[in-house]
């Protein structure tokens, strides 16, 4: 699910999805024994370079309060990678995995939120509540998790998760008509690096010169 913010607000969120394939690939290699192929290494390297380009282009600095937020997004990415590998390990189908995640979140998160926030949530306009409930309660918590689970079951943990890295490119493109924001030249370069990395890491075919074996691409 792609959510649009201003350029500066979007940046940390855009750093999260592209790093998920890296986390999943490492966990899948350790837990599931998935091969860490040469092509996958090249693709993930391109993704990481693209992410660093996004962070550097928006003034990310070391030692600032902003880094606390970055650390939280990195931790969230690690947790989601753990969910992906656990789902693959347990061989759950996409509907079962989405149901466990949605019901588990309802049981553990909603009571805590109700205690901390109280009734302030209901001070918001009802149309906004309905919209947020639909987007986050149905589209994100159910449909997106089902599609994610199906992709993982078809492609494998590391190959399937590689497509999460496309979120920055999709968000930047949607921001053009919806927010009137045009990516800078360096942002386009970062998106091309990330998109190319996703293609390679997910098992896309590379043009091979004569005499070069396809075994190199497959590891």
Question: Which features does this protein show?
Answer:
219 residues, mainly alpha, 9 helices, globular
Any overview of this molecule?
The protein is mainly alpha-helical and 219 residues long. The protein has one domain (7-218). 75% of the residues lie in helices and 0% in strands. Helix 1 packs antiparallel against helix 2. The longest helix is centred in the middle third of the chain and has 30 residues, at 126-155. It is globular, with a radius of gyration of 19 Å. The two termini are 32 Å apart.
Structural class by SSE content: mainly alpha
Q: Specify the number of helices.
A: 9
Number of strands: 0
Helix content: over 70%
Overall geometry comes to globular
Topology overview:
Blueprint: H1 7-32, H2 38-57, H3 66-90, H4 94-117, H5 126-155, H6 157-161, H7 167-179, H8 185-201, H9 215-218
Helix pairs in contact: 1-2, 1-3, 2-8, 4-5
Quick recap:
The chain has 219 residues and is mainly alpha-helical. It has 9 helices and no strands.
């Amino acid at each position: 699910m792609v959510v649009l913010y201003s350029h500066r607000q979007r940046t940390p969120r855009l750093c999260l999805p592209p790093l998920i394939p890296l986390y999943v690939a490492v966990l899948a290699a350790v837990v599931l024994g998935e091969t860490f192929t040469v092509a996958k290494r090249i693709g993930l390297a391109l993704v990481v370079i693209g992410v660093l380009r996004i962070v550097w282009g928006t003034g990310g600095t070391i030692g600032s309060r902003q880094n606390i937020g970055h650390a939280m997004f990195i931790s969230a990415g690690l947790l989601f990678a753990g969910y992906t590998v656990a789902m693959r390990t347990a061989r759950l189908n996409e509907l079962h995995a989405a149901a466990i995640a949605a019901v588990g979140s309802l049981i553990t998160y909603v009571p805590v939120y109700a205690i901390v926030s109280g009734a302030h949530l209901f001070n918001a306009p009802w149309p906004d509540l309905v919209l947020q409930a639909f987007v986050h309660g149905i589209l994100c918590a159910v449909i997106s998790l089902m599609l994610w689970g199906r992709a993982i079951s078809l492609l494998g943990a590391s190959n399937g998760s590689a497509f999460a890295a496309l979120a920055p490119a999709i968000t930047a493109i949607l921001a053009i008509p919806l927010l009137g924001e045009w990516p800078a030249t360096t942002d386009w370069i970062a998106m091309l690096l990330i998109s190319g990395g996703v293609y390679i890491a997910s098992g896309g075919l590379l043009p091979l010169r004569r005499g070069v074996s396809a075994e190199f691409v497959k590891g």
